[in-house]
Design goal:
This protein is of the alpha/beta class. The protein contains 23 helices and 23 strands. A nine-stranded mixed β-sheet has the order 15-23-22-16-17-21-18-20-19, with helices on both faces. The protein has a five-stranded mixed β-sheet with strand order 3-2-1-4-5. Helix 7 crosses helix 16, helix 8 runs antiparallel to helix 13 and helix 18 crosses helix 22.
Length: 575
């Protein structure tokens, strides 16, 4: 049985394909369109998935879409009746939602020979947050777990809690739009002068430079409820339907979500060109701390309700790796699973799993520990491409390659590493990465100077051989998808300054030999030379989506000051 899951007409559009419950391929549309957070129909991602599965659209048994326009319909109508000024914005959202149910032209672009009436019967709509829950639970190793989906909004829900048991998900409760932890964080992100969709991670990176002096003041705009959920004081916020949430050229844009009352309370918003003051840093620290407290409030009550020791989390707020790293200590949950695509791209994967496991009641398959489900290219394809561009290169066997690359890193140098299948999700995990020496205190400046040109307060991440995690970090849990931030032991911070944030933390990726054998081999070669089982790892891009093809990798190499490019076994050095 083949199931094609898609996230369409929503930010981070994506596709995933499964055969008998096993994921064959999954990828975001932005990797092909080269537009961040692409929000249109994932036609190219679908074509990629079908090609990887070796089938045509006609051979797909079901198509799941992670969106159900009928979800909470009565509550939606009630909300509009109570807020008539929002009707105009809601109509635009409705028109966008209707596109999801009018897909004939889109699918015929993929295969003009299809009978759409037959295909339409295969299409199943799965609620946004149920898809999130499924992307985490059904991919996890747990037979039973508490579940949390938390983000901006989707299908009139912003937070959903539940229980997963074997191949079933039971929803316990939810928070309705517009009250939202995600939108709360976004409002402060905009206020702090980071206006673009998806800029929330900048606030998370800025927070350690401040003190949470305004914790009480920030918390005033929220109300933590006794049932473990929350609400907010609506006068501080502008609903997205009124602020102007729209898709322009398939890119999501949202107007300012903070109100005049918000400005009266926190002062004038920062212009993105203005200098970041200590007030901004302290406010970022306060927002991050309040967000963490809210997440722990939800989880502690969920632990009490369910009595379970395992928890699975997804949704945009689940990308807050700083909060994720504190869950085990701040709650009584012992085990935490967060998928590689915990954000909206994971909706494609989750909708398919929800339909297969929960609705069709099929048995679950193996846990998902690998994010490598995207594009891949053979050495033959890469050599043919390089020859067509008249690029000089050397082709090396792995052992020789690891030796040459690690020597370049130690020099010190910056290397573009393109290996195996691309990652599914927002984080580079050693397939499409730029790497450097973590011992080099100037590596961060070097990366920003040569390639990234991003804000100086944003940290770079460590990839560590998982056997050495306890030696370097205060916690020793597996973190396969770079989804958690842990404190680095004090005695190790001076050894790996390039990946030690200002507060002594690092957003780590634990590298498993069985999951990432080639990346593991490279780090092991570096360890043998330096005694340090860690590399600096940042995404292979330059203010664009992560590179997807050898051509994009080469173009990034040529327009930056990267020292070396590795495309599988082919090495290109800057002369």
């Amino acid at each position: 049985m083949y199931i094609l899951g898609i996230n369409a007409y929503h930010a981070d559009s994506s596709a995933a394909i499964f055969k008998d419950g096993e994921m064959i391929a999954a990828t975001e549309e932005e990797r092909f369109t080269r537009v961040k957070h692409w929000a249109g129909f994932p036609a190219l991602a679908i074509q990629f998935c079908l090609k990887e599965a070796g089938i045509t659209l006609k051979e797909v048994d079901y198509i799941t879409i992670g969106r159900d326009t009928n979800a909470k319909l009565i509550k939606k109508v009630g909300y509009l009746l109570a807020n008539p000024s929002l009707v105009g914005g809601a109509i635009k959202r409705y028109q966008n939602a209707r596109e999801v149910t009018s897909l004939e032209d889109e699918f015929k672009e993929i295969d003009s020979s299809i009978d759409y009436k037959t295909l339409k019967k295969k299409i199943k709509n799965i609620e946004h947050h149920r898809s999130h829950l499924a992307s985490a639970f059904f991919a996890s190793p747990f037979e039973e777990a508490a579940l949390l989906s938390i983000d901006g909004s989707g299908d009139f829900t912003t937070t959903m809690i539940g229980i997963g048991r074997k191949n079933k998900i039971e929803v316990l409760d939810s928070v309705d739009f517009p009250v939202s932890c995600g939108l709360f964080y976004t409002a402060f992100t905009q206020f702090l002068g980071f206006p673009h969709y998806g800029d929330e991670y900048k606030v998370m990176g800025l927070a350690p430079y401040g003190e949470p002096k305004y914790f009480d003041k920030v918390k005033e705009v929220l109300t933590f409820l006794p049932n473990g959920l929350y609400t907010w004081k609506s006068e501080y916020f502008v609903p997205p339907t009124k602020a102007g949430f729209q898709y322009i050229n398939n890119t999501p844009y949202v107007g300012n979500l903070f109100s005049q009352k918000f400005i009266d309370h926190f002062g004038n918003p920062r212009n993105k060109e203005e200098e970041l003051t200590q007030y901004h840093k302290d406010l970022a620290a306060s927002v991050q701390r309040v967000t963490e407290e809210l997440i722990f409030h939800i989880l502690n009550k969920l632990r009490e309700k369910t009595g379970l020791e395992n928890v699975c989390i997804a949704g945009g707020v689940a990308q807050n790796s700083v909060a994720n790293g504190k869950i085990a200590e701040a709650t009584r949950f012992k085990n935490v699973y967060i998928p590689s695509a915990g954000h909206d791209a994971g909706i494609s994967m989750g909708s398919a799993l929800y339909f297969y496991n929960h609705i069709l009641e099929q048995p679950r398959t193996r846990p998902v520990w690998s994010a490598y489900t995207g594009s891949r290219f053979s050495n033959d394809e890469i050599e043919a491409f390089l020859q067509s561009r008249n690029i000089s290169y050397k082709k090396l066997l792995d052992d020789d390659l690891f030796n040459v690359v690690t020597d370049k890193l130690i020099e010190p140098g910056v290397v573009g590493w393109f290996s195996g299948r691309a990652e599914f999700g927002p984080r580079a995990l050693g397939a499409r990465s730029i790497i450097a020496d973590p011992r080099n205190s100037k590596a961060k400046d070097l990366l920003n100077l040569k390639i990234k040109r991003r804000e100086s307060f944003r940290p770079f991440a460590p990839s560590i051989l998982k056997e050495y995690t306890a030696e370097y970090f205060t916690q020793a849990a597996e973190v396969p998808f770079m989804e958690k931030v842990f404190l680095i032991k004090k005695e190790k911070q001076s050894i790996i300054p390039a990946v030690t944030h200002v507060d002594g933390s690092g957003r780590l990726q634990t590298v498993d030999k069985d999951v990432s054998p080639r990346y593991y081999g490279l780090i092991e070669a570096f360890r043998r030379k330096t005694g340090v089982p860690i590399l600096v790892n940042t995404s292979f891009n330059e203010n664009e989506p992560i590179v997807n093809t050898p051509a994009e990798a080469l173009d990034c190499f040529l327009r930056t000051k990267m020292d070396m490019l590795v495309l599988e076994n082919c090495v290109i050095e800057r002369k």
